[in-house]
Write a structure and sequence with these properties.
By secondary structure, this protein is an alpha/beta fold. It folds into two domains: about 180 residues, Rossmann fold (3-Layer(aba) Sandwich); about 110 residues, Rossmann fold. It contains eleven helices and eleven strands. The strands form two sheets. Strands 3-2-1-4-5-10-11 form a seven-stranded mixed beta sheet, with helices on both faces. It has a four-stranded parallel beta sheet with strand order 7-8-6-9, sandwiched between helices. Helix 5 crosses helix 6. The longest helix has 22 residues. It is elongated. The relative contact order is 0.17. Bound molecules: 6-O-phosphono-beta-D-fructofuranose. The site of 6-O-phosphono-beta-D-fructofuranose has 9 residues, from loops.
Length: about 325
């Protein structure tokens, strides 16, 4: 039985440990593992290869994905999906494990309905913005990358008595910014999900400045689109010289953390066990309340991820008096 793995959309740490585990476990279960290189683009272009242990030796500690990834516009066109199906048919592949986000899972669902190619999606994105799962592969490593960067910025911020506005990734989701702000002790945090309370933050910071605070850190989620405003606000309202750092793609790289390696193995184990069952069609494996389960693609894509209440409560305590009502 042939089974393939593919990464699709933004890469993240944890994909390589998942790919390694996939190959090794498939062989142990007497399945024939294949790589689809370059995501959906590679599926269209027949970049499909049968693999074995040597293809995955020495990759567990590497960030990114050795099978590469893409965001495919062509896959929206049925002509290219048919081409992709014909490629899979040549290799007798009827099952694919997809490391990616909800857009990729939706694309695979369309593909399943047209051609019957089964898939299990593994949530893998640093944004942690997929409905139905508490955790997406890559998030822990991204948070540790951010932590390292913020610690380094703190060194220069304190040496020069400056404010730093640090922008994190995450698309419309403030998860990375919020967790990073709390765990780095940032004075200001701005995320798209909660209206910010700059009056409260100003009062709090001014009090601290009157009592010895000499520098400050503001962590701002890209989805809030407030980076420039916060810089101006710090200069005008707090009268402190301010610099901006956009962390950018550094957040997507780095060696996978222990947690991401472990989660990679668990997500893949569940996915293989599920995809070989007859009743499996197209599903997503999620990690919810410390348990793995499977969710239907419609449920995932028709709902919006919400930040967990415990994080919202922490945000309110530190950054938003008026949210407390
Ligand atoms: O979805 C992952 C992500 O890194 C987002 O946080 C970010 O907005 C986007 O991808 C960047 O995309 P690209 O790599 O195409 O610039």
């Amino acid at each position: 039985m042939a089974i393939a793995i593919m990464s699709s959309g933004g890469d993240c740490a944890g994909m390589n440990p998942a790919i390694k585990y996939f190959v090794e476990q498939s062989i142990l279960k007497k399945l024939n593992p294949y790589f689809i290189y370059d995501g959906l683009e590679g599926l269209i272009d027949n970049k499909i290869k049968k693999v074995s242990f040597e293809n995955v030796s020495g990759i567990i500690h590497l960030g990114g994905t050795i099978i590469r990834s893409s965001r495919s516009k062509r896959f929206f066109d049925k002509k290219y999906r048919l081409q992709a199906y014909k490629n899979l048919k040549k290799h007798k592949i009827t099952k694919i494990i997809v490391l990616g986000g909800d857009g990729s899972f939706r694309a695979m669902d369309v593909f399943y309905n047209e051609f019957g190619i089964k898939f299990v999606g593994i949530p893998a994105t640093i944004d942690n913005d997929i409905y139905g799962t508490d955790y997406c592969l890559g998030v822990d490593t991204a948070l540790n990358m951010i932590r390292n960067a913020v610690d380094a910025i703190r060194d220069t911020a304190s040496s020069f008595e400056r404010a730093f506005v640090i922008e994190t990734m995450g698309r419309e989701c403030g998860y990375l910014a919020l967790v990073s702000a709390i765990t780095s002790g940032a004075e200001i945090c701005v995320i798209p999900e909660i209206a910010n309370d700059l009056d409260y933050q100003k009062e709090k910071i001014q009090f601290e400045m009157q009592n010895g605070r000499k520098y400050l850190l503001a962590i701002v989620a890209e989805g809030s689109k407030k980076r420039k405003n916060i810089k101006k606000w710090c200069e005008k309202e707090l009268k402190i010289e301010t610099r901006v750092t956009i962390l950018g793609h550094i957040q997507r790289g780095g060696n996978p953390s222990v947690y991401d390696r472990l989660m990679a193995s668990s997500f893949v184990k569940k996915s293989i066990d599920r995809i070989i069952q007859k009743e499996c069609k197209g599903e997503v494996v999620v990690y919810k309340d410390s348990k793995f389960e499977f969710k239907n693609i419609d449920e995932i894509t028709s709902n919006k991820y919400k930040l967990p209440q415990n994080l919202i409560d922490l945000y309110k305590d530190s950054y938003c008096q008026k949210c407390k009502g």
